[in-house]
Design a protein that fits this description.
Layout lengths: L1 H22 L7 H6 L7 E3 L2 E2 L1 H8 L8 H4 L4 E4 L4 H4 L7 E4 L4 E11 L7 E16 L4 E11 L6 E9 L10 E7 L38 E10 L3 E8 L12 E11 L23 E18 L5 E17 L2 E12 L9 E15 L2 E12 L2 E15 L2 E9 L8 E11 L1
Antiparallel strand pairs: 1-2, 3-4, 5-6, 5-20, 6-7, 7-8, 8-9, 9-10, 10-11, 11-12, 12-13, 13-14, 14-15, 15-16, 16-17, 17-18, 18-19, 19-20
């Protein structure tokens, strides 16, 4: 065991040195940073996690909450003269598109140490290559998309997200937006899967009940329509209607979801009405606030596996959850709970309950160095599972991230340490 430990530490040191050396030559920046000619750290703590300003930027349709026209440094291509607004509806309302093609890339490479294997080490490089796009058409329409060109799990290759959002359709600013396409449902706003600091997912979003056919989970991308908005800078809401599990092979009833949340203190959810309502290049991680959210999801799984009567069967399920986040200076605490019921997951009419909770602490040691500790428990079919995730994340450059992450399952019969991964992520 001591030999393996020394071997692991030695390889870790070599990899860290190599990654830092590689990082010194990278100068590319993502599309939004190019548009505003500002650092990635304006909106991100580290790839992928956004800070409070970055979340407000996303909610605002990938536009700055204030001073959009003054802050854009790249020219826009006008699609029609501004005077056409005066002629509407006799003329087409003018728009604009970015001067440069709004594409970026996300690359992820790993070194994996698995103590359960005879050969402990493996290079998973690259683990993922993803194309990203996003931007706005004028003031009130935005879009975002991502396409996975390569991932270790071949089933994940293909379109991940692609949606368009129409903003400020009625009422006060940010009060009514409509999003359409393939997206991460708003029930995860309290801890978006696409906004996590660790590579390991939040255990609540990974709960699966079904053992055959559809294997739906909260974090899965969905195709549908969502209505969302923010009132008085602090109150958020969202309701959505989606297809549900895209792997379902027959038509079924549509799934629905909702979310309500409120933020006390700190920066407003829309980037206004609170602390630090401006671009933060220094101390961008600080947001002294408390946010509470509740959400629900109701859906149906259907598949062409036949019962004894020879007909397809359905499973109606519900999820109800709560999440919270508290930030104070360098510390960010998160937590959540989900309760679920499936009325017929095995086609035998027997109801199955599931639930889970997690707690997480993130700490800023330096503006370029973060620590993460998460504990979660899930129970499905009366079988419990504990998961501990530990990570140390460092920024080699604003768009280059190096981290070491460990996953521990205390309740396993075998070695509690599942794996240790050294991760190298960068955005272009």
């Amino acid at each position: 065991m001591k030999t393996n430990t020394h071997r692991f530490l030695g390889v870790t040191l070599v990899f860290a040195v190599v990654f830092v050396a590689l990082g010194t030559t990278a100068e590319a920046i993502p599309p939004f940073a190019r548009k505003y000619q500002t650092s990635c750290t304006t909106c991100h703590l580290a790839i992928q996690q956004r800070n409070a300003f970055g979340e407000a930027f996303r909610r605002n349709g990938y536009k700055m909450p204030e001073g959009e026209d003054e802050l854009v440094k790249r020219e826009k291509v006008s699609l029609g003269a501004p005077a056409w607004k005066e002629e509407w509806p006799k003329a087409v309302w003018p728009s604009d598109i970015p001067f440069t093609v709004p594409f970026g890339a996300y690359i992820h490479q790993r070194l994996v140490y698995d103590p359960s294997k005879d050969d402990n080490f493996s290079f998973d490089a690259p683990h993922e290559f993803e194309l990203l796009t996003g931007g706005s058409f004028g003031k009130d329409i935005s879009f975002y998309g991502s396409w996975v060109f390569f991932e270790k799990d071949k089933n994940a290759v293909g379109l991940k997200q692609m949606y368009i959002q129409f903003e400020d359709l009625a009422g006060p600013e940010n009060a009514l937006n409509v999003k359409m396409g393939r997206m991460e449902p708003a029930i995860t706003w309290g801890y978006r899967d696409s906004n996590r600091m660790t590579l390991e997912h939040n255990p609540l979003w990974d709960i699966r009940v079904l053992t055959q056919g559809s294997k739906w989970r909260i974090r899965d991308q969905q195709s549908g329509v969502e209505v969302n908005g923010i009132f008085k800078h602090r109150f958020e809401y969202a309701v959505g209607v989606v297809n549900g599990d895209s792997r379902t092979t027959i038509f079924k009833p549509l799934d629905t979801y909702w979310r309500l949340g409120y933020k006390f203190g700190g920066m407003g959810l829309d980037g206004l009405g609170g602390q630090f309502n401006e671009l933060q290049q220094i101390n961008n991680w600080r947001d002294d606030s408390f946010t509470l959210g509740v959400f629900g999801y109701s859906g149906t799984n259907s598949w062409e596996l036949f019962t004894d009567e020879g007909v397809p069967y359905e499973n109606d399920f519900d999820r109800l959850g709560v999440d919270l986040q508290w930030g104070h200076k360098r510390l960010l605490l998160r937590g959540g709970f989900v309760d679920g019921t499936d009325d017929n997951p095995d086609g035998d009419g027997v109801e199955v309950d599931s639930d889970g909770w997690f707690g997480e602490a993130d700490y800023v040691f330096r503006p370029w160095l973060y620590g993460v500790a998460r504990y979660g428990e899930t129970t499905v079919r009366e079988v419990g599972k504990e998961i501990v995730t530990l990570a140390l994340v460092g920024l080699v450059r604003a768009n280059i991230r190096l981290s070491i992450e460990a996953l521990v399952e205390p309740g396993r019969d075998t070695d509690e340490l599942r794996w240790i991964k050294i991760n190298f992520l960068y955005g272009l």
